[in-house]
Amino acid sequence: MDANNVARVTCPACACLCRDVDLEFDDRGDIVHTYNACRKGAAFFMGSYRENRALPKIEGKPVSIDDAVKSTVEILSNAKNPVIFGLDTSSLETQVLGVGLARKLNAAIDDTSSLCQGLVLERIIPGSMKTCTLDDVRDYSDVMVYWGSDPANSHPRHMSKFSYFPRGKKRQKGWETDRMPICIDVRKSNTAGVCKKFYKIEPKGDEGLINDLLLSLDGKIGGKEIGGKGIDGKEFAKLTNILKKAEHCTIFSGLGLVYSLKNSIKLFDALIEKLNEYAPTHVIPMVGHYNMRGMTQTLYDASGYINKVRFSDGEVDHGSQYSITSTLQGKEADAALIIGADPVSSIPLKTSISLAGIPTITIDAHETPTTMISRVVIPAAITGIEAGGEALRMDGVKHELSAPRENKEVLSDAELLKRILEGV
After folding, report:
1. Residue 42 vs residues 47, 52, 136, 293, 398: alpha-carbon distances, Å
2. How do residues 151-163 score in pLDDT, each as one tens digit?
3. Distance separating alpha carbons of residues 350 and 228, to the nearest angstrom
4. Which of 11, 108, 138, 383 is geometrically suited to a Cys-Cys bond with 41, CB 3.0 to 4.6 A?
5. What's the CA gap between 135 and 290, in Å, rounded?
6. CA–CA gap between residue 325 and residue 348 (Å, rounded)
């Protein structure tokens, strides 16, 4: 490894934002090796700028970036009910500009948190649910619960850097004797295979398990199989006891838990509140996109809400009707600006058809199913490789992203939004 061709970077492949990844470049400036990166990080760095790059287009025809920006300004300026979506893979600066653009256009603005971890983040960000940092977990947590989450696959370095395996200030014996990892899931995932305790529940069995835990913590049930969920009574009693006697417990909430509790999230609130009567218990959502935590914080600071917001002549409105899916399903949006997101790959087909039926602009580094249905496509630099900035880790800690490989052919999404803001 030639030290002259190596750069240390923060990895934006997931919301762990690992800061110890080294990239080795050849004489042409291409990345030839990664060091310390997990398989997701290595794939991101080695493949993201080589393959499937987006090109400026209008109606599928190649144009200049100037023409694409001009068309975007025209579409947004003429729209009466535009919607802005995404920004979870953008820098904090870009997110501030995106919110500013929504305010200027009297637009609705939403991000992928409304489709996943928003239910937890809207409790953590205002402070109604207790949380901590990943550094706190590494230094102090003796009990960690991976509930409906599988970091072994979704965040490959999470357990080795922050939770189960590392030795911390108060956990010098590390995984051998100082930590109790617990997995609660509908299947035996790779994470469950590593954990010392695994509790298998039925699909959508989280609500019943929480109800039983609340009763057990109050001493009202115990000693038999719990609720027909397949959890042995003695093992369930051990789970209750472990949670009650923890010195520092952290629950990593995954999509399995969030989706299961979509209509009963207040039960989770009650559980965390009850557990804190016995032991310090914290929640960290297992955020996927590297700066979703930043987008929710940015929008909260500007509006008091983390997603599903509508600006109107200086006023702020909030509600499920302003989510990306509801806005499109209700056919209220007459234009859409998608930034660093691919909703067509995740929203229902009928909703995607609605998106394809209105003037849609997508700003992205790569071609995606969403760029394929967009009237205007504007390529952007890849943040973390070609453009720098700041981002919030899944626990809200701010990290700096560098730009080790400059690309003069494309602008950053922040620069693009500045030009659009100036034009509308």
Report:
1. 8, 17, 27, 22, 22
2. 999 999 999 999 9
3. 38
4. 11
5. 17
6. 8
Dig out the tokens for 6 from the structure.
């190596």
Cα dihedral 92, 419, 81, 346, rounded to 10, equals: -50
DSSP string, 133-171: -HHHHHHH-SEEEEES--HHHHSTTHHHHTSSSS--SS-
Residue 2 pLDDT: 59
Question: What Å distances lie between residue 6 and 9, 22, 29, 272, CA to CA?
Answer: 10, 6, 10, 45
CA-nearest of 303, 288, 286 to 109 is 303
Q: Are 417 and 105 in contact (CB under 8 A)?
A: no
Which among 220, 218, 151, 231 has a CA at the least distance from the CA of 191? 151
Residue 31 CB contacts under 8 Å (≥ 6 apart), including other chains: 23, 24, 25, 45, 46, 49, 405
**What is the side-by-side order of every strand in the sheet holding 6-9?**
6-9, 21-25, 31-35
Task: Decide if pLDDT at 412 tops 60.
Answer: yes
Grouping H, G, I as helix, E, B as strand and the rest as coil, residue 376 is strand
pLDDT digits (tens, 9 = 90+) for 158-212: 999 999 999 989 888 777 788 999 999 999 999 999 999 999 999 999 999 999 9
Whole-number pLDDT of residue 227 = 45
- What's the mean per-residue pLDDT of the chain? 93
Q: Using CA atoms, how far apart are residues 99 and 34, in angstroms rounded to an integer?
A: 35
Residue 218's pLDDT is 87
Place of tokens 């093992």: 235
**Distance between start and end Cα atoms, the chain:** 49
What is the DSSP track for 209-246? HHHHHHHHHTTS--SS--TTSS--HHHHHHHHHHHHH-
Q: Which residues contact 58 (CB under 8 A, 6 or more apart)?
A: 67, 68, 71, 375, 376, 377
> Residue 223: which pLDDT band, with cuts at 50, 70 and 90?
very low
Report yes or no on whether pTM surpasses 0.85: yes
> What is the mean predicted confidence (pLDDT) over 269-285?
97
